[in-house]
Amino acid sequence: MTTVNTKLNRRSFLKVSALAGGGMVLSFSWLAGCKPSSEEELLAMPKEWFELNSYIKIGDNGRITIFSPNPEFGSNIKTSMPMMVAEELDVDWKNVIVEQADFYPERFDRQFTGGSQGIRQGWKPLRTAGATAKAMLVAASAQTWNVPASEITASNGQLSHAGSGKKAGYGEMASLAATLEVPEEVTLKEIKDFKIIGNSKKNVDGQKIVTGQPMYALDKKVEGMKYAAIVQPPAFGMRLKSFDKSSISGMPGILDAFEINVFKEDYARNFFDTTTFPDKIAIVGNSTWEVMQAKKSLKAEWEKAPDTTFPMAGRGGQANNVTIPGGLENTSSHKTKMAEYIQKPGNVLRKDGDPEGAFKKAHKVLERTYTAPFLAHNTMEPMNCFADVKGDKAEIYGPTQAPDFISGTISQAIGIPKENIQINLARMGGGFGRRAYSHHLVEAAIISQKIQAPVSLVYTREDDMAAGVYRPTYSATYRAALDENNNLLALHVKAGGIPESPIHANRFPAGAIDNYLAEGWDLPSNITIGAFRAPRSNFIAGAEQSFLDELAEEIGKDPIEFRLELLKRAETNPVGENNDYVPSRYAGVLELVREKSNWNTPKANVSRGVSAYFCHNSYVAEVVDTVIKDNQPYVESVYAAVDCGVVVNPDAAANMGEGAIVDGIGNAFFGEMAFENGAPTKTNFDKYRMIRHKEAPKKIEVHFVENNEDPTGLGEPLFPPVFAAVANSLYKATGKRYYEQPFAPQLEMQNLRM
Amino acid sequence: MATYNLNINGKNLQVDVDPNTPMLWVLRDHLDMVGTKFGCGIAQCGACTIHLDGNAVRSCQLPVSAVTDAQITTIEGLSEKGDHPVQKAWIEHDVPQCGYCQAGQMMTAAALLKSNPSPSDEEIENAMNGNICRCGTYTRIKAAVKTASQNQ
Lengths: 754, 152
Ligand code: FES
Ligand code: FES
Hints:
The complex is a heterodimer of chains A (754) and B (152). Chain A is an alpha+beta fold and 754 residues long. Chain A is globular. Chain A starts with a strand and ends in a 5-residue tail after the last helix. Chain B has two domains: 2-77, Beta-grasp domain (Ubiquitin-like (UB roll), Roll); 85-150, [2Fe-2S]-binding domain (DNA polymerase, domain 1), CATH 1.10.150. The N and C termini of chain B lie far apart (42 Å). Chain B has a five-stranded mixed β-sheet, sandwiched between helices. By secondary structure, chain B is α+β, with helices and mostly antiparallel strands. In chain B, helix 2 crosses helix 5 and helix 3 packs parallel to helix 5 (138-151). Classes of the chains: A alpha+beta (754), B alpha+beta (152). At the A-B interface, helix 5, helix 6 and helix 15 of A face helix 1, helix 2, helix 3, helix 4 and helix 5 of B. The structure holds FE2/S2 (inorganic) cluster (FES) (2 copies). One FE2/S2 (inorganic) cluster sits between chains B (96-102, 133-135, 137) and A (74, 380, 430).
């Protein structure tokens, strides 16, 4: 049993009444949203709700509303976060209504979706919220029945006192409970007593999704709303010079066109204030189609941007100047420059033993270089936002992973204090990191303020794909020194990218090799980058795990056995300090995937590859089976073993894992963004190849290690290992190693169909 | 601008729009039926899929003037109570992640099952290939199509 001090997250327990004067109104859409299905006996809607804390309202009839605090981008936290509250509150899940909370920093901690941290960081606070409300219901019954609280049991929405035979539903005690003091300490359940956590619950929005009900920002419509589109520079390194409004005035449905600027001169940007084109043109009209037509006719002049320097707020609150170079960049010159860097020394990030000496002594050196291009996120729903700015108040309803990071930017852009800006969290049509950078919200707010009307802003796919904030392009060179008996003497990795290095210097195989050197480098660029599902790991895992595969072959060992030996070394006699992984848990997923995939007895005609990686506090190993049929390689099966601690919602967790695997296969084969004279060469799905039904694996199995560890990340960790598992299995199929992502062009050169 | 009488989900509806306006935007902006989604605008992603006389079409490439008296079905009209076999199967397999592509996926799947009630794996893949799911729910979609095929 864990006892937790509720003071730690006190703000969740503020009563709404105390804040009612603050101008924040919670939106309750349950009447439209949660139609009880007729097959189940469900409680009706209550006449009155009582609020026990930020997360929980209980109806007079026992119906429960749980607020899901974080923005939903498809990882299903809108179901799994409330499950954690419901577990400790101890209620029947079918009587729970889930409501998306608005952005409300006075009531909720960390309303941020990203870094695979939602469940991990919500684990204690959300359960505490449930346990606290339960304790208050127990206290209310004790008071009502005049018996000691310790003799009352609360379970499944019912309170009972065995001695007196008294019983009541939560609803009957809710009004009194809501007035009681919040207990200072509560006790959380033991894992073995869980009834909801660990039992799959269906997506609470499933019925809404399959019936096409409005739930995304783009679906919002209000009286008098106008539509807006943007026109942005055609290339990185370009900026707006001027435009001719008369080129579109008079077009049907067009009301106005003007320049918008996301940042005021002296504003110190924060780390998430990445936007490629802070200055652009907005076109406003009566319908989406009309503004999209006007976009094509608008005459604008662009000019090359010089080097630009702006202040960026540092961690201590101090602003540093950041400089973005001018110039029109090309993928071909990126490649040349990156190749040059491989020959130069990098910044030493970690050094164990005497790697230089070991390489001098080596009988044999294996050296390989891996590269990967920029990637566009391509969320299925393009950037968009609804905004209604009136006087000194603003209402924003937009797809954002990080409302907290953008609220200050909105505030400086429209000159309205943060407290008067209400950001409501729309369901997102995908995020993948892209919507941690939410300048589409700022743009919509500026447009609404300027036209004095509510507005729905939408990017075209072309705007979205060309707007940057990409996954960076990277390169990594691995070298291994072997003695005459094929013993591994040293390992050296030097990796960099534009504009950041992908190295995590303290991760495996650091800690397992006596002589180890990690170096990083980076090259500046004006092509903007941002978090993309498992930043940095999404490249370095592929390079490292492909190299280890080749190294195992060189040494003559089974690839899983080879990794397990290294992990054994890291566990029993670790090299160096700060190794940031637990070797036994790492080994655990390799062992599990070996068992589940029947590693030693693959099916005939399949070629298999393995890979494992640790990131976002979780361990994942994957085996990919590739088949070549009619001269076409495809992934037949994928087996994944995952250690992410306790799994809250297993089927949804498996879904997330399957998605990450498909995402990895797609990007390994096809994902690529390139540039010519600063302009992206692909701006829609006709050129930017996405994985489709035919290329998806026929079967994916996701197996979770069963343990009682606190939950860790899930949305990201299954993604990075896929790249090497695919490359290693393709090697078995074709006899060629794959060093350069995406793999499809090389496969085509081998006369395979892709 | 011109006036069009449209038959959508069994109802007669009138709009006054430019003849070139794609049905996608007629539905979303003018008729407030927002279940049909915008993904690419160039018939490459399938998010905007609707039925035109029972066939799956990309509404982003279908000008309102080309509809004439054809019957249109959108996700909102796929079933009255949200219980079309495809919708039920999608719930059973808990298919959606972000959900944005799913209306288009389901409309394509429903049209496929109408013309071919028990499709093979390959037929499912071929029919569904125009519908991108960025979240990667393909294996669940395929399983759901099979379930729907058995339960119709
Ligand atoms: S929006 Fe019509 S196919 Fe993509
Ligand atoms: S569920 Fe997100 S795009 Fe398909």
